[in-house]
From TrEMBL:
Its EC number is 3.1.3.16. This is protein-serine/threonine phosphatase. The keyword Manganese applies. Residues 28-297 form the PPM-type phosphatase domain. Signal peptide: none annotated. Its cofactor is Mg(2+); Mn(2+). It catalyses: O-phospho-L-seryl-[protein] + H2O = L-seryl-[protein] + phosphate; O-phospho-L-threonyl-[protein] + H2O = L-threonyl-[protein] + phosphate. GO terms for molecular function: metal ion binding; protein serine/threonine phosphatase activity. It comes from Rubroshorea leprosula.
């Protein structure tokens, strides 16, 4: 095991020139042009957004640039939304191992997003503020789109051929049966508000706290079975490109995914975002903060405006396909404009989302690092994410990744393994 760790440490130290060369070799298809627009109408002042198009996987290497688009819909105040906007990206990036090429970086993103969301939640809760926020966080790297989300802000993909797909899952207790079952299994109660006489009104809520969502960042005053572990989906577009519409529930309470996409087809991204907001307000009025980001991913030889893809005679069920080992099949799907699904996972169990490591989790200093908060750990301090009680079903409780005591405590709380209300310091 020691020799394996040594090999990993040496691999972490990759010269910048070698990384740049690797990046150049890995780009088999020319990068698309990314254009975007944003529009919003405020009622409560609790919606926030992030647009950052100059991020770099390899500092100083312009060919490693990627873009981030995110919406944070706060509730019970705006502090959680502001804190998440300012810190989530850095926390995600700190969870990505150093020295990765582009393919390895994309494979590492789903796990890093989980760690970043949990770390952001843990740090915000330690501040003692009680607000919470949804988070829909989108990374666009060339033709690959990775989306992580908690709550009910939504991201949809329109391939301009009447094929509209949702890249997120709504964590509303009213609609999501699996999340209701998870919350009750973890010690929470699900029910509606009761008024005098015993009548129940309004949407399903989680008690204590009365939150309508089962996943969020913040919300220190509710049970910790309201988890920050995101649903993550990663897809690769064909060179026909596509349009992303990212919006808070002020849009989705008024418009279906199909209606939002249809309302702005043929418009450039900036006008499209305004049109979606306008259509939502026309349909429902300004009853909530209403925020929309539109992102067009366009082939470089057609960068002036989004070009509608001709409607394909392909079953809609074939829109997403698991990554195939057959290059012939992959090329065939790409040729007809079908989006390739690379990754999808929505489990709320941290051990399932962080995976298994044999020799990873060790820093170049020789110390182990917490898979969530990235603090250095001596070998005797790290607690395997798979370790549990004597009734644990894990067959490898000694296997990484490892957690510090605070993050292990957070994990147990989210899974209902300790009483609600015991907060992480």
């Amino acid at each position: 095991m020691a020799s394996g760790d040594g090999r990993r440490n040496r691999q972490d130290l990759v010269p910048l020139a070698a990384l740049i060369s690797r990046e150049m070799r890995s780009e088999k298809m020319e990068k698309p042009t990314v254009r975007y627009g944003h529009a919003a109408q405020s009622r409560k002042g609790e919606d926030y957004f992030l647009i950052k198009t100059d991020c770099q996987r390899v500092p100083g290497n312009s060919s490693s640039t990627f873009s981030v688009f995110a919406i944070f819909d706060g509730h019970n105040g705006k502090a959680a939304a502001i804190y998440t906007r300012e810190n989530l990206l850095n926390h995600v990036m700190s969870a990505v191992p150093h020295g990765l090429g582009r393919d390895e970086w994309l494979q590492a993103l789903p796990r890093a997003l989980v760690a970043g969301f949990v770390k952001t939640d843990k740090e915000f809760q330690s501040r003692g503020e009680t607000s919470g926020t949804t988070a829909t966080f989108v990374i666009v790297d060339s033709w690959t789109v990775t989306v992580a989300s908690v709550g009910d802000s939504r991201c949809i993909l329109d391939t301009q051929g009447d094929s509209v797909s949702t890249l997120t899952v709504d964590h509303r207790l009213e609609e999501n049966v699996e999340e209701r079952e998870r919350v009750t299994a973890s010690g929470g109660e699900v029910g509606r508000l009761s008024i005098v006489g015993g009548a129940e009104i309004g949407p399903l809520r989680c008690w204590p706290g009365g939150l309508c969502l089962s996943r969020s960042i913040g919300d220190t005053d509710v049970g910790e079975f309201i988890v920050p572990i995101p649903y993550v989906k990663q897809v690769k577009l064909s060179n026909a490109g596509g349009r992303l519409i990212i919006a808070s529930d002020g849009i989705w309470d008024a418009l279906s995914s199909e209606a939002a996409a249809k309302s702005c087809r043929g418009l450039p991204a900036d006008l499209a975002a305004r049109q979606v907001v306008k259509e939502a307000l026309r349909t429902r009025g300004l009853k909530d903060d209403t925020t929309c980001i539109v992102v067009d991913i366009i082939a470089p030889d057609n960068s002036e405006k989004p070009s509608p893809v001709k409607k394909q005679n392909v079953l809609k069920s074939l829109l997403f396909r698991r990554k195939s080992s057959s290059n012939k099949l992959s090329k065939k799907l790409s040729a007809v404009g079908i989006v390739e699904e690379l990754f999808e996972e929505g489990s709320a169990m941290l051990a399932e989302r962080l995976g298994n490591d044999d020799a990873t989790g060790q820093s170049t200093s020789g110390l182990f690092t917490c898979a969530v908060c990235q603090v250095d750990l001596a070998p005797s301090e790290g607690i395997s994410v798979h370790a549990g009680s004597i009734f644990s079903t894990s067959t490898k409780p000694w296997q990484g990744p490892f957690l510090c005591a605070g993050c292990r405590d957070k994990k147990d709380a989210m899974e209902g393994k300790r009483p609600s209300g015991v907060k992480v310091a």
